[in-house]
Amino acid sequence: MPREARFRKIPMQPIRLLLVDDHVLFREGVSRLLATEPDLEAVAQCGTAEEALAFVARTPIDIVLLDYDLDSETGTRFISDASARGFQGKILMVTAGMNGLQCSLAWRLGISGIAMKRTSPAKLLDAIRKVAAGGIWNDEVVISRVGNPGGAKATPLTPRERQVLRGVLEGQTNRDIAYNLGASLGSVKAALQQLFDKTGVRTRSQLVRIAIERSIETGVAPRTRSSQ
Fold first, then answer.
1. Which letter, b or e, does each residue of 85-123 get, where b requires 16 or more Cβ atoms within 10 Å of its Cβ?
2. Which domains does the chain have, with CATH numbers?
3. Which residue spans within 145-228 are E strands per DSSP?
4. How far apart, in whole angstroms, are the C-alpha atoms of residue 177 and residue 164?
5. pLDDT higher than 80, residue 7
6. For the whole model, what pTM was predicted?
7. What is the pLDDT confidence band of residue 146, given thresholds at 50, 70 and 90?
8. Which of 6-15, 32-41, 90-99 bottoms out in mean pLDDT, i.e. has the lowest?
9. Phi-psi bin for 182: left (phi > 0), alpha (psi -120 to 50), beta?
10. CA 42 to CA 16: how far, in whole Å?
């Protein structure tokens, strides 16, 4: 075998995506956006949960971009049914709006993130790649809702724990959080463990879900969006 062939770089397979939304224009717009990215591939589009379930049963998909409102049904039906049928891919909700309880239910069912339709194309691409790499994603509007107590008794958090929780909700790694806070990696890990202990969870995704569910105060004012 020639030396060049032995060391030829094997191209990576693109991330395979399924778009599930009842608005054709939105699906077409996202599909055109994905077509400009060599590492992303919009494999198909579906307008209902039933169509999407049938498709993932016969076609390998890495990430489903799932709307919450699907005409007369909600995206949570797809999440629960797909999981019950053995779907191994990830799910990123791309929605015009979800309240705290709806967000909590989606996280409980096993999604990897929530992105708002009003977000920029660049941020949506960031969200897709973050989820594909095994991370979690929450748009700023979702994070801000965690700071509004919903009546449930919240476990008091220290200022450092609130800062670390905010970083987790934003999908940052421990190193990112430490860098942004000017803190040591060890202190961030310790604060994260305290958050796990206080909320009774074991993983970051469970922490996100329980934070939204209990509306734990992050103590950080949400960034405002400039008007268009």
1. eebebbbbbbbeebebebbbbbbbbebbbbbbbebeeee
2. 15-138 (3.40.50.2300), 148-214 (1.10.10.10)
3. none
4. 7
5. no
6. 0.66
7. low
8. 6-15
9. left
10. 6
